[in-house]
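Are you able to produce any protein sequence you like plus the matching backbone structure tokens because I've never seen that pairing?
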Amino acid sequence: MGERVLIIHSWPPTPCLHGFDVGLRRLGYEVDRVGPSLDYGLAEQFRQLDPDCEYTVMEPGHPPIESLLKPDTAWVLYLYPHVKFLPTGLLDCPVPVIGWLTEEEKCAPVDERLYPWFDAAPTAVSHYSREAPGKGHDNRPCYNFIGQNWISPRYTGPRTLDMSFVGHWGLPGATDARDDDLRRVAVWCRANGVNFSPRSGIWLRDVVDLYRASKIVWSMAATGNQNLTYRVGEAFAGGALVLSPRPMSYGGLVSPLVEGEHVVFYNNQRQFAGYVRYYLQHEEGRERIGSAGAQWLRDNPIEAQVAFFVETVVTPLRGTFRERRRERAQRHGLTPEREQEDYRAYFEWQGPQPDVRQGQRGLARTITLRRGSPP
């Protein structure tokens, strides 16, 4: 491709969103990375897994978007950094800016205000994309990143766990929709002698290794059954059967996932129990579905999925983003005063932040990940 892309994220990256970076590089893009530091214990793992990745780490704030661009930057991908960092001047940016604001349920009060500032604000939830025009948003295409797993398991031993789950729980306002279901699953497994291992606070290869040791992976997004979760792709990489409550809808995939062939959905607790019993007793059927999920991942490698993202989200903006931006700004009333209000809401949501009107370039330093021995 040869194009240069600026990714605005955080260091270390959110594991599930790092697939955008990996896929773009495999497609031949030049990738620059800028963002704040968010230390949650993954820095060394990233140095080992992706030693050629280089970040320019900046202080939290709101630098002008043009100060972050290189002369040949073709477009910008803002991946919600979960740290108070949001560039200003988006309406005057000389290249398209895509805002990946996928925390619809967790951060909806703020995200709704930010969508109009981006040339595209894709969503992973297909019914959100369908409903967007009715809410005045014409820039919310659906792209589902659940298959962008970029890690292979190290563990090659037997599947010693009946079922596993990875994710947070007990976080008010963030995991409420999943906590009750997880509790019911754990209670049922304990009562029926199912070896269930729910884990929180593990990442990257440790997650995929756990799935490689599991016969079944129970998967449910923290926000409930709105959509399939990124954990599906990680479970596919581990070759485990994925069992999930039926999502309200899912789409935006480079290739369809077929129920009963790649993944198993259930409609209620009774059906859940029946499927767990059946697939623990019928290894051949379980392995068939787990192998089909792994094959789906091989048939749709990360570079093909990111190429689909570029085709469906970025390409339609080429040559037209300026006029679309002007029309959207007029329709939504995007004025300098409105920018101050929307940015203030964002920074208050994330935590205290200086006045947006002052502008801020931030202090930058570059982190180079040295090549290390495999983990």
Q: What stands out?
A: Residues 352-375 have pLDDT under 50 and may be disordered. The chain has twelve helices and eleven strands. The two ends are 31 Å apart (CA to CA). Residues 26 and 366 are 22 Å apart (CA to CA).
